């Protein structure tokens, strides 16, 4: 990634400047971030995606679009005839993870790789009829909202009061206090940090792409890492058993012995003691593909591997000691680590680079090709 080149995508800022000034800090409205932007998928293609089982989609309908009341939300898949008529105002179709299904959207997503891959979630496309929107809300994500078709009026505010209206099928702020209002045209883009209140209302037929970046919570990370650490140790030598030869006869039978609580704490500390195990668990978690992703095993091919490319749905990351691919962790060092990192960063390896891998790493790469995680380009 060229991080010191001014980009129209960022309103003339370099990725380095954008990260320093705006990322997680303050919104940015970028006029003509992508000049001449037109929908990469047309309406019919988007509706076709929303009809698939493996694609996550939602339909939000407002019974009274003008008053912003009475929201209804349903989860897909949606047959075309299950969607409201195009002429009906006040509805929105949201289709998640389009980058996993469409090479053009994936290429768009790749323009944002100045943000670490580990933070990327997906590209969501929304289609809205006139007046459609999902109501004033906030997200836990950093998001780039790229207008691609029609116009949308945005109102945004940095309020602290994030209480939600009760009994709603979607998150709607109880007291929205917008501070800024503007209209985005095709090609314009709005960056919002997490928890920034916003409301986008379609003015006529409208399509918006949300390039979203997940912010894992401390609880989520702790839970995922601890679960993987527990799985990691299964099957090893039998673990230490709690022993209480000094236990005295109990007067209060139901009371948990203090020594047992201390044993539990030290067991937890013990499982966190190996920093590499924690790194392995973190990388494995972050590289886990989305639940809807299914890889298709490839037909066995004769001859040595030539050039390769990551499958569009593969997530590949690395740290100083490991490489991670689709939820699995491998130790890597020396030349092999160098080439595997290039594969993770560039998503491809040339035939010359593949030929430099050790026999062990080549076998691994072949396994990934067989599983459909990596495509052999011939
Ligand atoms: C939308 O595209 O309709 C809503 C996106 C958002 O507000 O997060
Ligand atoms: Co939002």
How would you characterize the overall build of this protein?
With 378 residues, the chain is an alpha+beta fold. It has helices at 15-21, 43-50, 103-110, 218-233, 258-272, 275-286, 334-346, 351-355, 359-370, and strands at residues 28-30, 57-64, 69-75, 91-95, 120-128, 142-157, 180-184, 189-192, 197-213, 308-310, 316-318, 322-325, 328-331, 348-349, 374-376. It contains nine helices and 15 strands. The relative contact order is 0.11. The chain is globular. Helix 4 (218-233) packs across helix 6 (275-286). The chain binds succinic acid and cobalt (II) ion (CO). Succinic acid is lined by residues 92, 126, 128, 133-134, 139, 143, 145, 198, 200, 208, 210.
Itemize the secondary structure elements and their pairings.
Blueprint: H1 15-21, E1 28-30, H2 43-50, E2 57-64, E3 69-75, E4 91-95, H3 103-110, E5 120-128, E6 142-157, E7 180-184, E8 189-192, E9 197-213, H4 218-233, H5 258-272, H6 275-286, E10 308-310, E11 316-318, E12 322-325, E13 328-331, H7 334-346, E14 348-349, H8 351-355, H9 359-370, E15 374-376
Helix pairs in contact: 4-6
The structure holds succinic acid and cobalt (II) ion (CO).
């Amino acid at each position: 990634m060229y991080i010191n080149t001014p980009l129209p995508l960022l309103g003339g800022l370099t990725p380095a400047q954008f990260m320093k000034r705006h990322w997680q800090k303050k919104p940015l409205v970028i006029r003509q971030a992508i000049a001449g932007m037109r929908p990469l998928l047309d309406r019919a293609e988007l509706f076709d995606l929303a009809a698939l089982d493996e694609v996550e989609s939602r339909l939000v309908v407002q019974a009274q679009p003008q008053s912003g009341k009475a929201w209804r939300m349903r989860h897909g898949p949606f047959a075309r005839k299950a969607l409201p008529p195009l002429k009906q105002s006040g509805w929105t179709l949201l289709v998640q993870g389009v980058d996993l299904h469409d090479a053009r959207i994936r290429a768009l997503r790749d323009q944002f790789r100045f943000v670490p891959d580990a933070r990327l979630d997906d590209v969501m496309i929304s289609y809205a009829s006139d007046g459609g929107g999902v109501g004033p809300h906030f997200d836990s994500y950093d998001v780039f909202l790229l207008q691609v078709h029609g116009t949308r009026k945005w109102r945004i505010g940095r309020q602290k009061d994030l209480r939600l209206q009760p009994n709603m099928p979607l998150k709607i702020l109880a007291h929205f206090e917008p501070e800024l209002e503007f209209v985005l045209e095709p090609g314009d883009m709005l960056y919002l940090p997490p928890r920034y209140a916003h409301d986008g209302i379609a003015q006529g037929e409208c399509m918006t792409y949300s390039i979203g970046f997940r912010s894992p919570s401390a609880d989520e990370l702790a839970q995922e890492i601890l679960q993987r650490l527990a799985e990691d140790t299964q099957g090893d030598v039998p673990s230490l058993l709690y022993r209480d030869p000094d236990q005295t006869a109990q007067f209060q039978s139901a009371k948990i012995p203090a020594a047992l609580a201390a044993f539990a704490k030290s067991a937890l500390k013990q499982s966190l003691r190996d920093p590499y195990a924690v790194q392995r668990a973190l990388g494995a978690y972050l590289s886990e593909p989305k639940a809807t992703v299914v890889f298709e095993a490839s037909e066995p091919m004769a001859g040595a591997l030539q050039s390769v490319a990551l499958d569009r749905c593969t997530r590949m990351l690395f740290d100083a000691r490991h490489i991670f691919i689709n939820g699995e962790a491998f130790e890597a060092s020396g030349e092999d680590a160098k080439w595997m990192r290039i594969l993770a960063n560039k998503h491809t390896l040339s035939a010359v680079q593949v030929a430099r891998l050790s026999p062990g790493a080549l076998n691994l790469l072949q396994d990934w090709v067989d599983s459909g995680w990596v495509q052999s380009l011939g």
